[in-house]
Structures
1.
Amino acid sequence: MKAVFIAYNQALTEAVSSILDRHHIRGFTKWENVQGRGTHSGEPHFGTHTWPAMNSAILAVIEAQQVEPLLESLKKLDERAEQQGLRAFVWNIEGMI
């Protein structure tokens, strides 16, 4: 099993949800109103008067074979909307109940 953490501008919520549905990823945990800024470029998403945008984040634990197709779809979305901001990170799950 793998964990995929996806952080994205809230403007991309419908598109990210659609990608999860298309890849049959039903189970996840979602956080709204997440603040952050990109490592290299992009504007901060702080929910303030100066930086009003906000992010959301999703954590999904999925089968290993689902990871690459999901990342490919997320990368295509990010390339279509680079200014919005989207990042995904993957790590191993060593145990679960």
Note: The mean pLDDT is 94.
2.
Amino acid sequence: MNQFFKANYPIVAMFLSSAIAMLLFFSLTLSAKDHNNALDLVKSGEIMPLATIIIKLQKLEQGQIIEVELEKKKKRLIYEIELVNEHGIVKEYIFDAKNGELIKEKTKD
């Protein structure tokens, strides 16, 4: 077994459960057209895969992801991700979808 995987098993397990939850969430809330558009953007290199962004997020904050949106704001695509952390606080993270840069982090009321 890979040393990285052994050392980070709890993080990897949380990531996988979050990723599965996100796939279920997306499959229930996105239309086929939206899903195909997002896949096309990833394939063309215009945006990073959501899984890559989630890995970045999990390094910043542990918690359960409750909502993800891919939106266009100010002529750039962004991922807006809401999660509930281990203290029950809802936070929103905004990432540049092209380069994965964290743009903004805020606590929701």
Note: The chain has one domain: 3-107.
